[in-house]
Write a structure and sequence with these properties.
By secondary structure, the protein is α+β, with helices and mostly antiparallel strands. It contains 5 helices and 10 strands. It has 2 domains: about 100 residues, Glutaredoxin; about 80 residues, Glutaredoxin. The strands form 3 sheets. The chain has a 4-stranded mixed β-sheet with strand order 4-1-5-6, covered by helices on one side. Strands 8-7-9-10 form a 4-stranded mixed β-sheet, sandwiched between helices. The chain has a two-stranded antiparallel ribbon with strand order 2-3. Helix 2 packs across helix 4 and helix 3 packs parallel to helix 5. The chain is elongated and about 75 Å long.
Amino acid sequence: MTTAAVNLTLYRWAGAWGPFKVNIPCGECALTVDVITDTLETELAGIPVNLEVRDWLNEWWKPLPKGGWHAPIVMVEGKLVSQGHALNRGVLTEAVIAAHVERTGVKGTHLYGKATCPHCVRAKGYFEKAGVEYTYHDVVKDPRALYEMIGRVKPIVGPKTPITVPQIWIDGDYVGGADQLGERFGMTVEANPERGQNSLAANPSLAAT
């Protein structure tokens, strides 16, 4: 099944309305187009996106109900993500990935972590002992991995719960952190009250990772 494309709309400072016509080129609008184009080819490569570039003055009233009034205006799935200045590519990446993960599931086995996380190292060890292959994503070095992890975990743990690493999926099923992974593999998980808490900890004293 083909995944539905994420709708991305840019309203640039251009066009005409009645006697008014834009005659001065918008440098930040042109820069925003360049940022969008490059981000779609790099950080967002592989994610289907439907980009529409519209002249703001021709239809200035359309983004207005969403709070968009100052071109360049960037909207993702009808939600305002930037206006009035050149687009921040990180903001675009986060918004597009958030929209994308809402309509796609996780496939395969994945570990999201970072190099300085001892619990991520522990989780890797559990995978190796169990002989299970997985894909590792460094959320510090890879912005796309960070935003995808947050976008997938937040709906599970709730919007106010801090997201920790590691975050793990096996065959598309969400596992949780290192402790949950060890338990899933039937391995002994040693208690350590000095460890940080897992995002899913209903009782912090019992579910540290």
